[in-house]
Write a structure and sequence with these properties.
four-stranded antiparallel beta sheet; alpha+beta; five-stranded mixed beta sheet; single chain; Immunoglobulin-like
Length: 198
Amino acid sequence: MMRSTLLSLLLIACGGEQGFGEGKDTPSATGGDGIIEVFPEMVVWDRVVVGQPGTEGFRITSRGEAPLRVTEISISNAGSTTGEEGTAPEAVFRDLRPFMPDEHTPPFSLDEGESAEFLLTAHFLNPGESTGQIRIRSNDTEAEGPAPGDFRLDLQATGIASSSGGDDTGDSTSDDTGDAPADTGSAETETETDTGGK
């Protein structure tokens, strides 16, 4: 009788330990999730002049009570632009970097309400359009993406040809401000020479 009572107490104690162990994992899994907010929803370059990189940026903000832990920020799709015929295509989206490298180079954490800003460039070799994506991995398991904690930010850029003429003062037109001083100087020199000769 005594043995069966002791055995029952041991089984209850073991069952309690197992339940406590399972319960201990639950709070750390749910309570440790951050909430990410990325602005804007898509990074857009409306007019990137061919041969002249254009810079845009985006911001990551922590919106959860738990700290947001960002472990990776990378260009997952760099788009492509082509140059002269026969040359290999080049990436459009490049030079992804934190605005404050000392604080926001992954991995880093953001408390509720804190933000981190990032910059990147778009570069075209010829006029055209291109799309790409930024990959942001964090502890926000609810973030939209191909996997939990794997958020994707869309990129879109349009490359345009550089304008020619117009405001260029190097033209040989009559209203060219680049030619006026030279013409005026020549006329004054001729007048002074003529006066001096008389």
